[in-house]
Design brief:
Layout: H1 2-23, H2 25-28, H3 36-63, H4 71-85, H5 91-104, H6 108-137, E1 142-143, E2 146-147, H7 148-172, H8 178-198, H9 201-228, H10 238-250, H11 260-271, H12 276-298, H13 302-318
Antiparallel strand pairs: 1-2
Length: 319
């Protein structure tokens, strides 16, 4: 039933987008403004963002004790996993976990901890940087009538409380059912490992420096998508688009949040001096560029993909 509702919402969102561009055809024609030079620049930013993302995950894996894995081997695993994720729901995460388990005896629980840590660190760092930039530049900025500083501040507080509050809550829960007890133990292990890593100040400092770089790379990446279609938009609001993109990867309302993210981009674009159409188009451009980037990078690993694809589909059927 939940999947049916997801697809109904997807159809509604896509229907709204189609109707919007049928009404405002001049905005859709902005796609014709994109030059080959902009496409190459966007792909270059896509490769750079992908590489930095891979580096951050690699650092977390090293922190977790996976010392025998070198970066080039990890980059291959990471790149293939992202390609698989585009075609099989959660397939990339399954592929990474199985590959690391088979080749490096890396426990599945630690693979889950790695993704959890990555998501938490990305969200917290982006929210901190966004709050700092908005407070310094446009503190009165609102989104649908809500002050963005207040909104991002509440989100940051929630993310900061999750690992510490979650651990305390789990300690209070006692279960008799063996399966539930096993699941409770695994979740507790993940929560404890996340807390141990995020309280390592030197490691958090290193990750913060890398996240500052990736944050501004992504800001320029998104801004370039707007410039490519000739849209005039306030550059200082780009951190909000960056946070939105990050949060979109955490909570999926529709498959890949297709339609949802585009509409939110459109709403945010109107608050940033542009239009709904420009926001939708920019979001769509970023989706296409990401796919082209990952597809091209995977051309280097075609032999591995065939075997790995069979492994993932077999695992999905078994589960």
């Amino acid at each position: 039933m939940r999947n049916i509702l997801k697809y109904i919402l997807l159809i509604v969102c896509l229907g709204f987008i189609v109707r919007y561009f049928l009404t405002y055809t001049d905005e859709f024609s902005q796609l014709a403004n994109i030059s080959p030079q902009f496409i190459l620049i966007l792909i270059a930013f896509g490769v750079l963002s992908h590489s930095i993302m891979g580096l951050k995950l690699f650092m977390i894996l090293k922190k977790q004790g996976l010392v025998q894995l070198n970066f080039m081997r990890w980059f291959k695993i990471f790149t293939i996993s992202r390609f698989i994720n585009y075609h099989i729901t959660q397939g990339g995460n399954i592929y990474r976990s199985i590959t690391l388990k088979k080749q490096y005896q890396f426990p599945y629980t630690q693979s889950i901890s790695c993704i959890t840590l990555f998501t938490w660190l990305e969200s917290v760092f982006m929210l901190i940087l966004t709050i700092a930039i908005i407070a310094r530049t446009i503190p009165d900025l609102t989104l649908l009538g809500i002050n963005t500083l207040l909104l991002t501040g509440v989100l940051l507080l929630l993310f900061l409380l999750i690992p510490f509050g979650g651990e305390k809550i789990l300690k209070l829960i006692h279960l008799a059912n063996e399966r539930l007890k096993w699941a409770h133990t695994k979740v507790s292990d993940v929560t404890r490992e996340v807390k141990d890593v995020i309280t390592d100040i030197p490691f958090i400092g290193q990750m913060f420096v890398i996240n500052i770089v990736s944050f501004f790379v992504f800001i320029i990446f998104i801004y370039t998508a707007f410039v490519a279609i000739g849209s005039s938009i306030n550059f200082l609001t780009m951190p909000l688009f960056t946070v939105l993109t990050q949060l979109s990867g955490i909570l999926n309302i529709t498959p890949g949040n297709l339609g949802i993210t585009e509409i939110i981009y459109g709403v945010l674009a109107t608050e940033s001096g542009s239009s709904i159409g420009a926001g939708i188009l920019a979001c769509g451009i970023l989706r296409v560029i990401w796919y082209i980037t990952i597809f091209c990078l995977n051309l280097f690993y075609l032999k591995d993909i065939a075997a790995d694809w069979n492994m993932i589909t077999k695992h999905k059927h078994e589960t």
